C-alpha cells in the first residue's frame, strides 16, 4: 500500500509504521498548509477492548526542508502519554464518553507538540549525525486525543466529540491527533496478485475469471492521524507568505519519521518486569512520496531506507531510474506496452521519475508558472509549492490530470496516487524529458478502477472525507463495522 | 527531547554508568563475579544522587579495543576502557 507495512521490520511494529503523508494548501484556509501524517495501519474498527492508540515509546516527527537541500529545517515532534483513569476494570470505558473529560473513560492518551528550528539555538546533534544548532519550542502539552470510535453506546455523537479534540497551539497552528477513517484507497488484493488491474485483467498474462469490479481494500478500516494546519509563513525560510510560484523558497519538502530508543528491555524490578527504553532515538520509519519504499526499493533494502535521512536517497536512485515495475508491465500485459518495453530495453534512465520523486519538477517543464524543484540533491520528499492555490476543479490525477494543486505537488486526500504512479511508471511522464517518446495507448487505460473519472473526489469507500480540518473522515464505528 | 550537554552528562553519570549498567544487564551470577573482582580494586566513589537509579545499559561493542556504549535516558555515551570491557566480557563468558 502507500506505505502500510511496506518493509519487513516496520510491518511488525504498527504503532511506529508511517502509512500515508498528505500535504496541501488548505482549501478552506489557503494561507495555511495542512499536513496529515498517518500511523497504525489497518485498524479493524471493532478491535477492543484494547483499542488502537499511538505508542508512548515512539517519537513521531513531521519534518520540513524549506531551503532546498534535503536536510531538515523544521521538525514538529509528537510524544504521547497513556493513562488509566479508573482502574479495576478490563473495559476501555464504563459508560458513554460524552466529552474529553468524561469520568467513564478509562484509558486515555495525551500528547505534547514541540517545534524544533534547526540552525538557530544551542548546539545539538541530530540523530543522523548533523551537528547543528537547534531551538526547541514546546507548542502544546497534555493535549487530549479523542477516544476511538467504539460504537453508539460508548461514543455517541462522535463527530462533535472528536472535533473538540482539535486544538490551536501557541503559534496559531491547529492540531489533532487521534483515530480517523482510512483515507487512502487501493485495490490491494488485485495489485499484489502479480500486478493485476481488475478493469484490464483480461489482458493479464495469467487471466482469471475473478471480478472485474475494483475493491477498495481499506474502505472499512481506520488509522491514527497526526494532523497539522500551519500558517504558511511559519514554514517558509524567510517567514514571508509564499505568493510567487516561481520562487524556489515557495516550495517545502515534507517527510515524516517515527523513532524508537536504541535499547528496549524488560526491566526486572521487585519480581515484575516492565518494559524500559534507553538510549538515543533511532529512526525506524520514514515516508515522503507514497509508494516510494513500497514499490521502488528492493525488499532487502527497505529496512535500511526506513532508517536513512532523505538526503541519502541517491543510494536508492537506481530503483527510480530503472524501476522494476516498468520492466514487469510489458511482461504481465503482453503486447500492451511495446513502447515501454523498448524504453526499458534501451537502458535509458527514467529522468522523468527522478524529477517527480527525487528532485522536484523544474520550472517550465509542466507549465511556465509551475515548479516544485528543490535542487540537485536527490531526496524522497513530498514537495509542495505553497504559492499554487487550491484548485476549484480538482483532478484526482493531480499534475498528470492538469491540476497543479495535486500530487506530485504535495498530495491531497482524493489524489489517486496509485493510478498516477502507475501511469507515470508506464511511461505517461517520459515525454516531459523526451518529446519524441510516445506513451503506449494502454497507459490511458491503466487504472485500478476505484474512481469513476478524473474529477471523482470520492473514490469508492472514501465518501467520508470532511470539508475542513482534519479532512480525514470520522472513523468507522466498531459497532457498525464490519456489518452483518 | 532536550539538547544534551555531553560534558555535564559525563560528569554526572559516566563514572557510575558502568557499574549500574552491569547490574542492569548481566545475570546475577555474572554480577556476583564482577562484585568479587571489584573487592580487590576499590570502586570509584558514587555521588549521592538518586538519578543514578535510572536504567543504564552497557553494550561491549569491541572487547579487544575496549569499546563500550552506555545507554541511559536518551543518550549514548561511547567510552574506551579496555579494563571495563574485559571485565564485562569475563563476567558473561
What's the short version?
Chain A has 484 residues and is an alpha+beta fold. In chain A, 13% of the residues lie in helices and 27% in strands. Chain B has one domain.
Describe the global form of chain B.
Answer: globular
Rg over C-alpha atoms of chain B, rounded to the nearest angstrom: 13 Å
Unreliable residue stretches of chain A: none
**Helix and strand string of chain B, N-terminal first?**
HHEEEH
Count of DSSP E strands of chain A? Answer: 12
Sheet with the most strands of chain B? 3 strands, antiparallel
Q: Count of helical segments of chain B?
A: 3
What's the arrangement of strands in the largest beta sheet of chain B?
A: 1-2-3
- By DSSP, the count of extended strands of chain B is 3
Question: Roughly what fraction of the amino acids of chain B lie in strands?
Answer: 15-25%
Number of helices of chain A: 9
- State the distance separating the first and last CA atoms of chain B: 37 Å
Report the biggest beta sheet of chain A as strand number plus sense, adding barrel if it closes: 7 strands, antiparallel
Return the average pLDDT of chain B rounded to an integer: 67
Structural description of this entry:
The complex is a heterodimer of chains A (484) and B (93). Chain A has one domain. In chain A, strands 3, 4, 5, 6, 10, 11 and 12 form a 7-stranded antiparallel β-sheet that branches. Chain A has 484 residues and is α+β, with helices and mostly antiparallel strands. Chain A is globular, with a radius of gyration of 22 Å. In chain A, 13% of the residues lie in helices and 27% in strands. Chain B has 93 residues and is α+β, with helices and mostly antiparallel strands. Chain B has one domain. A 3-stranded antiparallel β-sheet of chain B has the order 1-2-3. In chain B, a hairpin with a 2-residue loop joins strand 2 and strand 3. In chain B, helix 2 packs across helix 3. The longest helix of chain B is centred in the N-terminal third of the chain and has 20 residues. Chain B starts with 5 loop residues before the first helix and ends with a helix. At the A-B interface, strand 5, strand 10 and strand 11 of A face strand 1 of B.
Amino acid at each position: 500500500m502507500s506505505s502500510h507495512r511496506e518493509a519487513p521490520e516496520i510491518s511488525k511494529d504498527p504503532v511506529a509504521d508511517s502509512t500515508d503523508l498528505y500535504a496541501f494548501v488548505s482549501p478552506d484556509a489557503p494561507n495555511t498548509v495542512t499536513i496529515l501524517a498517518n500511523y497504525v495501519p489497518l485498524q479493524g474498527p471493532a478491535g477492543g477492548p484494547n483499542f488502537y492508540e499511538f505508542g508512548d515509546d515512539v517519537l513521531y516527527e513531521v519534518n520540513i526542508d524549506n531551503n532546498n537541500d534535503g536536510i531538515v529545517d523544521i521538525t514538529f515532534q509528537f510524544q504521547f502519554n497513556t493513562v488509566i483513569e479508573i482502574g479495576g476494570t478490563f473495559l476501555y470505558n464504563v459508560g458513554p464518553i460524552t466529552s474529553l473529560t468524561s469520568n467513564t473513560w478509562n484509558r486515555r492518551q495525551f500528547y505534547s507538540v514541540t517545534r524544533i528550528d534547526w540552525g538557530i539555538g544551542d548546539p545539538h546533534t541530530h540523530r543522523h549525525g548533523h551537528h547543528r544548532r537547534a531551538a526547541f519550542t514546546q507548542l502544546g502539552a497534555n493535549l487530549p486525543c479523542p477516544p476511538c470510535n467504539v460504537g453508539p453506546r460508548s461514543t455517541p455523537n462522535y463527530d462533535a466529540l472528536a472535533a473538540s479534540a482539535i486544538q490551536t497551539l501557541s503559534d496559531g497552528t491547529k492540531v489533532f491527533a487521534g483515530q480517523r477513517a482510512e483515507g487512502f484507497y487501493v485495490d490491494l488484493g488485485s495489485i499484489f496478485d502479480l500486478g493485476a488491474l481488475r478493469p484490464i485483467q483480461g489482458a493479464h498474462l495469467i487471466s482469471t475469471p475473478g471480478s472485474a469490479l475494483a475493491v477498495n481494500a481499506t474502505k472499512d478500516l481506520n488509522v491514527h492521524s497526526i494532523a497539522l494546519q500551519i500558517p504558511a509563513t511559519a514554514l517558509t525560510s524567510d517567514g514571508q507568505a509564499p505568493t510567487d510560484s516561481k520562487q524556489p523558497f515557495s516550495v517545502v519538502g515534507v517527510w515524516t519519521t517515527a523513532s524508537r530508543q536504541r535499547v528496549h528491555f524488560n526491566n526486572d524490578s521487585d519480581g515484575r518486569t516492565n518494559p524500559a527504553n534507553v538510549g538515543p532515538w533511532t529512526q525506524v520509519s520514514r515516508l515522503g512520496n507514497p509508494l516510494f519504499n513500497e514499490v521502488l526499493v528492493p525488499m532487502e533494502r527497505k529496512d535500511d531506507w526506513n532508517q536513512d535521512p532523505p538526503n541519502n536517497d541517491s543510494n536508492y536512485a537506481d530503483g527510480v531510474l530503472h524501476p522494476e515495475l516498468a520492466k514487469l508491465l510489458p511482461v504481465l500485459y503482453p503486447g500492451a506496452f511495446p513502447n515501454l518495453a523498448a524504453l526499458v530495453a534501451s537502458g535509458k534512465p527514467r529522468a522523468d521519475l527522478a524529477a517527480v520523486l527525487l528532485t522536484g519538477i523544474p520550472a517550465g517543464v509542466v507549465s511556465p508558472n509551475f515548479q516544485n524543484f528543490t535542487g540537485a540533491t536527490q531526496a524522497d520528499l513530498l514537495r509542495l509549492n505553497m504559492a499554487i492555490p487550491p484548485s476549484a476543479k480538482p483532478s484526482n490525477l493531480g499534475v498528470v490530470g492538469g491540476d497543479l494543486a495535486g500530487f506530485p505537488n504535495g498530495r491531497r486526500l482524493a489524489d489517486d496516487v496509485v493510478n498516477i504512479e502507475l501511469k507515470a511508471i508506464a511511461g505517461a511522464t517520459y515525454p516531459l524529458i523526451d518529446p519524441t517518446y510516445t506513451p503506449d495507448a494502454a497507459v490511458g487505460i491503466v487504472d485500478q478502477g476505484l474512481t469513476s473519472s478524473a474529477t471523482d473526489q470520492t473514490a469508492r469507500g472514501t465518501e467520508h472525507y470532511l470539508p475542513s480540518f482534519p479532512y480525514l473522515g470520522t472513523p468507522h464505528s466498531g459497532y457498525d463495522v464490519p456489518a452483518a | 527531547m532536550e539538547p544534551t550537554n555531553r560534558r555535564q552528562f559525563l560528569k554526572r553519570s559516566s563514572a557510575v554508568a558502568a557499574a549500574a549498567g552491569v547490574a542492569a544487564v548481566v545475570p546475577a551470577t555474572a554480577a556476583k563475579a564482577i562484585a568479587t573482582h571489584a573487592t580487590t580494586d576499590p570502586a570509584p566513589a558514587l555521588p549521592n544522587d538518586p538519578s543514578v537509579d535510572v536504567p543504564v545499559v552497557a553494550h561491549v561493542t569491541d572487547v579487544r579495543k575496549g569499546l563500550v556504549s552506555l545507554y541511559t535516558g536518551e543518550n549514548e555515551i561511547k567510552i574506551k576502557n579496555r579494563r571495563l570491557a574485559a571485565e564485562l566480557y569475563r563476567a558473561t563468558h
